[in-house]
Amino acid sequence: MKKKILKAVAVIISIALVIGICVTVNVFVGNPISKHIVTNTAEKHLVEKYSDKDFEIEKVIYDFKDGYYHAFIQSPSSTDSHFTLVIDMYGKLKTDKYESDVLTGWNTSVRLGNEYGEKVDGILDSQSFPYAVDMGFGGIEFVSMEHSNDPFVPDYAMLIEDLTLDGEYNVNELGAKAGKLTIYINDENVSYERLAELILEIKKIFDDADVKFYAMDLVLEYPKDENGTKKEGCVEVRDFLYSDIYEEGMIERVKASGGAEKIS
Prior knowledge:
Blueprint: H1 2-29, H2 32-49, E1 56-63, E2 68-75, E3 78-87, E4 93-96, H3 98-103, H4 106-124, E5 132-140, E6 142-143, E7 158-159, H5 171-178, E8 179-186, H6 192-208, E9 215-221, E10 234-241, H7 250-259
Parallel strand pairs: 6-7, 8-9
Antiparallel strand pairs: 1-2, 2-3, 3-4, 5-8, 9-10
């Protein structure tokens, strides 16, 4: 009798474990039935709304953070024509991101920004780059017309609505118009003089590599000590224009850019 009870308890525990695992898996990765329903919804939506396009479902994944399935759509003939359909587990379409991602020019701006960023990374990540970069990247400043007058948007930012879908652009020329470098450098000498010197030297490095930019954020900080902590204090420039980078009066322009009070 005791063995039968223990066996029954073991079966109950096993079933509970299986149910628990299934629930956990469902929470984090969804379930095959819902995924099948979602895929059918996505296929039907593409036929009904985009019959004149060659859109294909690249993949369908469940995002546990928002509780929805995301069907990733891509056109094999259009680099910038990719977007997401957001669908609930019952197959109800919640969001179609075609207009916001494709028609606005957003995808095109991201592609061009990434291409420019790769050029910048090639310089900053090179073993020949002579400075200790704590963080560094580059991008092209784009803005939607809706946000073009926001106070934090630089006046040299380019409108994404002006971009052409799948358009071929010289990203270096775009960089000269709206490219921005953001670089954090560690150095024992944290001073306006050293910051001005670095800006001039970095400009020369980018000129020699023929990678153009319009403005630069450069932050000069102390390196970490053996305990992994940094001495307080830094100097910096924000949106320092390429056209302002020349030797005469350089230190004065650096000081006037807003970093003076940050030296400890």
